[in-house]
Write a structure and sequence with these properties.
The chain contains 3 helices and no strands. By secondary structure, it is an all-alpha fold. Helix 2 runs antiparallel to helix 3. The longest helix has 16 residues.
Length: 52
């Protein structure tokens, strides 16, 4: 997915906004959760590697 396409995705926009808000208040756990969800978002076309 291109950066422009991610900007058009409401879920990506929400997760980015939540991640930045979490960083602002120092909630690093929530910021990490948002980053993981962004990476796993199905619209990105890639899936994380499966562990055995």
């Amino acid at each position: 997915m291109t950066v422009d396409a991610a900007r058009d995705c409401a879920e990506c926009v929400r997760l980015e906004r939540d991640r930045e808000a979490a960083r602002t208040v120092g909630d690093w756990s929530r910021a990490t959760d948002c980053a993981v969800l962004l990476r796993r978002h199905p619209e990105h076309g890639t899936k994380p590697a499966r562990r055995p």
